[in-house]
Amino acid sequence: MLPSIRMAQGIVNRGTFPRLHFAVAGSLALFLAAFALATYTGPNAEPPTTEILAIPEAMAAEGIASLPADETSALVLASLPLPEQPDPRAAELAGAPFLGGEVAPEPVDAYAVSAADRTIKVRRGDSLSLIFQREGIPAREIPSLLAAEPLGKRLKNIFPGHGLGFTRDQDGTLVRLTYTPGPLETLEFERIGDEFVAREVLREPDRTTAYKSGKIDHSLFLSSQRAGLPDTLTMRLAQIFQWDIDFVLDIRRGDEFHVVFEELYVDDEFIGYGEILAAEFVNRGRPYRAIRYADTDGRADYYTPEGDSMRKAFLRAPVEFSRISSNFNLRRIHPLFKRNIPHRGIDYAAPTGTPVLAAGDGRIATASRTEPNGNYVIIQHGEQFTTKYLHLSKFGRGIRSGVKVRQGQIIGYVGATGWATGPHLHYEFLVNGVHKNPRTVELPDAEPIAPGERNRFDARTGPLLAMLDNFKSQVQLALGR
Q: Which element (helix H / strand E) includes 37?
């Protein structure tokens, strides 16, 4: 209203303006002055109180936040534009002295997360030097960024799809770099003088619980995909039960799985899967159950409902593979020599280069090559157990006689060296020097839950087992079982 009035006064000619209008304007001015004097009660007067009423939804949609008790005056006030609050720094910015008191500076956090001036996605084939060249940033900044311990070295291995953010000052100097390798992690590099200081910012995702189940009619992967379970979680499921079930040899049509797991979200956007919390696998009619538990030291692992570790001293199968080509058979006819040569192990058919894992902790007794065995490894596990791995294409890094290895460590890769008719791993398991069937041999158990953890274990895992049972019963009820 007021700006438009001032514009009108600038163009009106007094001689052409109606005399009646001046009279009305003067009367209005006198009324406003009298009203102001009547309502002014001195500098120490308390401001009038106004009762706030609930705002109707229709008015809320129009941006009206609240109504005084007098609805008529409230509607009038709501129809007028609110006066803008003056910025105390406006006069100072305009070059005039500020008379309203000192303005406190806003606090500055040198490590506060802030939006970069420019953000990009790493492209295929990109390196930090190539990106800097494309963005017009001097290459001399790179050594300082890489020297920012301990995170700078990670900038050497950036991957397509990762995010980079650049903040520059008025002179174009890079003052801040952010590197985002994933939705939950950001590396920040802040310039201090001629160097950069690095820190890691981690976000905690929101976690929701989900459940999937399925029945195997062909293979574990096909059945889990049909049930909506991603391959990554299927592999984790197999790893949890790998000490009890050989997921190539032992899987049968009609086997079932039930899984309770986490889904991760950031700002209501799905970003991936968390941990498997509880699972059951029914193999040949026998159920195996596992629950995830983190002890008081923060170490997490999977246990049976009774508190026994799912881990055993040995893996049932020392390689992840697609099918098995030959079972343990002491009366096998050799495919090359056409005569009875006992087959004292199991052949795991897999593509050349598939990693071969140490079945248990131990020491490499032999890592060598012979004409029949090709490249082979023998591991001694204490005094009682020995495992053998034949026909390897090559050995794992650092694998040689006398070296200690851990269960699951890569000791070699599937091949077809020696007397092999195709790429596969020949695996043998010996107890006190006697060959045993790796499928059925009794394996020593790992340590159970410590007695001091028992009550805590029961309290933490009980709800997970109840959740698994509840989901299972709902599925069975829906299927009419």
A: helix 19-39
